[in-house]
Amino acid sequence: MEQLEKDVSKTGNKMEQLEQGFAKTDDKVEQLEQGFANTDNKMGQLEKDVSETGGKVKQLEQGFAKTDDKVEQLEKDVSETGGKVKQLEQGFAKTDDKVEQLEQGSAKTDGKVEQLEQGSAKTDDKVEQLEKDVSETGGKVKQLEQGFAKTDDKMEQLEKDVSETGNKMEQLEQGFAKTDDKVEQLEQGFANTDNKMGQLEKDVSETGGKVKQLEQEVRSQRMKENKPEASPVEPFDVKICRSKLAEHYKRTAKVPTSVWSKASPVDIHQIYTRLSWVKEEQTPAGSSQSELTHYTDVFTPNKNGDVPNRILVQGQTGIGKSTFVKKLAVDWAELDDEKTEVKQGDALERFENDADTSENNEETSQDYKDTASDEYDTASEDENTSCDEYEENQKNALKKFELVLVINLKEVSKCQSLRDVISHCNIFPEEEKALTEGLLSYIAKNQEKVLLVFDGYDEYRCGSNSEIYEIFRGKKLRNCCVLITTRISQADELREFKDVHANITGFSEEDGKVFMKRMLGGKTEAKELRRHLSAKNLEDLARVPLLLLFFCTLWKQGKLKYFPETKTKLYLEIVQHVLYHSQGKQSPARFGKVQDFKVILAEIGKVALECLLKDDHVFEYDQLSAAILCEESLIIGLLQVTEYAENLRPAGMVSFIHKSIQEFLAAWYITYRCVPEGNLGGIEEHARTLEDCETLENVFQFICGLSDDGAVKVFEHLTSVGISDPTLDLSKIIPDLENETDVPLCDVTAKHRRFSKLVYNSFQEVHSKAELLSHCFDCTGGIVLVTKQLTELLQKAKLKDLTQVTHSVIFLYSNSLTSHMSTPYELVEFLDCLHVPLRITKNSKFSQLETL
Questions:
Q1: Strands 810-813 and 838-840
Q2: Alpha carbon distance 322, 205 (integer Å)
Q3: Which residues form the signal peptide (predicted)?
């Protein structure tokens, strides 16, 4: 043990020597400290440690042999890690003090001396533990005794090893001396680097100034080169600008006649048909709506004589907002054109020559004369002013504007400032871009004479972070008249700043007829199409110009001659036609059925549903999956992109060509992806009330039309909605026969009728009506409100036997149906159920059939 203590003492000395070196190199200090700490901790395994000494010495030799490489690595690590550099700088700064302290034998060196003291304390603890272990373990004592018996031989070997270690220590000291020199060089290098970085920052700053100066000189030189030196800058001439704007509006007044192609557009005078307008007003009694006779009515002063300066025009997709803007622009452009009437006559002549020579041409041409290019003859017959006076008033509404600046925000969706918007909207040719500055100056100084029209705010990506938004809210150009169009979903952002809030509602019935005559070339075809649309309950959709254009296109191509009996089949035809059109443009052309593209339509339908549930009809291009993008040329006809391009890639924002197309694709996704998994794709959570269900009514109908299994899921959901809402419970309408109560708790309400209509509209799309009739009746708890729609549905379904379905069903019959059925007996005869309780709602009394 004395020899061991001597060895330990010698080892301690060596540790002090090693500590002097390893205090300068973190990695080597840690390795040596761990090694000597292991020596203290593993005194009981001295033999094993001594046997491993040679290996450790070899590791040391290899370590010192790689000193230069590690020093280089250290330089890299120091350059990459500021913290390490600071630690090295602090360590090297204290090297002299620590060396003196270590040479003097100080036991209070910061950091490492404390660790050594703690290690010594731990060594004592370990020795005590060793003594306990020796006393407790006889086997270990015997091993120690045998080990000590061999001490002489091993000590000789140890002395040799220590002697070699001494040599290695000298090499270590030499290595550390070299390390000191390299560290000093590193410090000098860092100091030089700091100086160079400072100088570099100064140079960069000076270079930046010189670059800016150079840019200014280059810009100035370019301006000099672009301007004729001999002639001064011409002042802004509002008449010239007005002429150029008018020329631009008339040249671009073209309207496409195809939903999926911009080829072969026609002059707006040949196809434009009057749209219906509604103005919304807020009064103390609440909001009210009034119809507008002409679009220029939005510029007329209100009852207090205040002239509106901020006009918000909203409408759903495809309702005709952008076409209206083109019409407004061309109407203004032709106000001062002395040849307007001649040109319109020429346009009319061209239209008449292109039409068929059938007997309907004369009537079609007359319709054109009545409503095409000159809408000023639509004044009410009850007005005291003559048509000429009314026409003049409408013209004056536009005449008061010296300049009308129309901006398509989709073309400039990323431009924030008005200057950038005007520069990038292609109103002026490249060589006349200088007009932009003069125009901006004129607008600022003559605000009352300027009308700014911004079309498509919903497709403008800058939104509220733009000068356009600041202008509409009145923070800039407050005295300008500003008209902005947007989809309904984006109107709330602008609503609080408007003076007038107008809504384009589409075609009236008569204007829809005029449009169909123009598109189909005659009254006969238009009348036939109208009859089919009416028979299929599609009049509301026909009010939307975009969809009516769809219907006319398919009718002309014979796709609707045998008109689909359901709305679902009609939209299958529309999607099929879009796909055919897209496939025909591919090389080589490939024509497949809708079912051939079930997967890709389900992928895009997933996006459609997500947007519907968020009430968002514009979505990011990145939301389209890789599967969709691989087939973008195929589905491009179903989408609108925010940029004028033939593919999707440049566009940031995408939307469906119409909400009903979006709803059909959402139903497609639910039918083929969600229904097989037993759900409706999240609709169950979003549509828990009648009002929510009504917003998704088209989706429910399309699901029922696409799949019987889907129809079952829809009816199950509607049943749960009916159960959860007591106001939809029809059982309170039925008197209690057992208690001889002939007065019901309540009468049939409008909400009952709305819910029944929602159910019947969905059932109308079902293919297997006989099999699913019971599911339909379950939606209202087996109490069925009889309406004209239901009787027509059942008659068309040609159901042979309703006994099994109706034996547990109660039918409610309202007197409002008497205009369609002569007596309740006709209903009873049809249902073939002579003992069904019947309730007549006129006087809230119950009557048995036998008593009628």
A1: parallel
A2: 50
A3: none
Q: By C-alpha distance, which of 546, 680, 668, 679 is closest to 607?
A: 668
pLDDT digits (tens, 9 = 90+) for 522-564: 899 899 899 888 877 778 888 989 889 888 888 887 766 666 7
Confirm if 551 and 540 have CB atoms less than 8 A apart: no
Residues 831-834: contacts with CB under 8 Å, at least 24 apart: 831/802, 831/806, 832/801, 832/802, 832/803, 833/802, 833/803, 833/806, 833/807
DSSP label at residue 264: S
Radius of gyration of the chain (CA): 44
Cα end-to-end distance, the chain, whole Å? 124
Residues 768, 738: Cα–Cα separation, whole Å: 37
Angle at 55 between CA 51 and CA 56, to 5 degrees: 100
- DSSP reduced 3-state for 448: helix
Question: Does the predicted TM-score (pTM) go above 0.90?
Answer: no
Mean pLDDT is lowest, of 45-54, 246-255, 513-522, for 45-54
Which residue in 794, 796, 839, 788 sits closest to 816, CA to CA?
788
- The answer, yes or no, to whether residue 3 has pLDDT greater than 70, is no
Which DSSP state fits 767?
S
Element (H, E) at 694: helix 690-695
- For residue 411, give Cα distances in angstroms to 414, 425, 642: 9, 6, 8
**How far is the C-alpha of 26 from the C-alpha of 90, rounded, in Å?**
12
- The helix/strand/coil state of 500 is strand
Q: State how far the alpha carbon of 643 is from the alpha carbons of 17, 43, 412, in Å.
A: 76, 80, 9
269 to 234, 366, 370, 371: CA distances (angstroms) = 36, 14, 12, 9
Q: Which residue has the higher pLDDT, 446 or 577?
A: 446
* Integer Cα distance of 613 and 561 in angstroms: 35
Mapping DSSP to helix (H, G, I), strand (E, B) and coil, where does residue 783 land?
strand
* Sign of the dihedral defined by the CA atoms of residues 673, 678, 680, 683, in that order: negative
Q: Say if residues 520 and 555 touch (Cβ distance below 8 Å).
A: yes
The number of CA neighbours under 13 Å toward the Cβ of 569 is: 12
Per-range mean pLDDT, top range of 28-32, 383-387, 847-851: 28-32
| Torsion sign (Cα): 426, 432, 433, 437 | negative
How far is the C-alpha of 668 from the C-alpha of 192, rounded, in Å? 70
**CA distances, 164 to each of 31, 32, 67, 159 (Å):** 19, 17, 19, 8
How, if at all, do strands 653-656 and 618-620 pair?
antiparallel
Phi and psi of 157, rounded to 5°?
A: -65, -35
Closest CA to 684 of 729, 710, 721, 723: 721
Q: Note whether 658 and 317 are within 8 A (CB).
A: yes
Q: How far apart, in whole angstroms, are the C-alpha atoms of residue 734 and residue 838?
A: 9
Q: Quick one: which H or E segment has residue 316?
A: none
Confidence category of residue 59, pLDDT binned at 50, 70, 90 = low
CA distances from 517 to 51, 537, 565, 846 (A): 106, 20, 24, 52
The H or E element spanning position 86 is helix 82-93
CB 612 within 8 A of CB 628: no
Question: What are the φ/ψ torsions at residue 533 (nearest 5 degrees)?
Answer: -60, -40
CB 736 within 8 A of CB 675: no
Give the pLDDT of residue 798: 66
Residue 156 has pLDDT above 50, yes or no: yes
Q: Which residues contact 63 (CB under 8 A, 6 or more apart)?
A: 28, 31, 70
With vertex at residue 298, the alpha carbon angle to CA 295 and CA 301, rounded to the nearest 5 degrees, is 140
Please state, in angstroms and rounded to a whole number, the distance separating the CA atoms of residues 632 and 624.
10
Distance of CA 256 to the CA centre of its chain: 27
Q: What is the DSSP string of 754-807?
A: HHHHHHHHHHHT-S-HHHHHHHHHHTTTTEEEE-HHHHHHHHHHT-S--HHHHT
Find out whether 804 and 833 touch, Cβ atoms under 8 Å. Answer: no
Strands 838-840 and 845-847, bridge-based pairing: antiparallel
* Rounded percentage of the chain residues whose pLDDT exceeds 90: 28
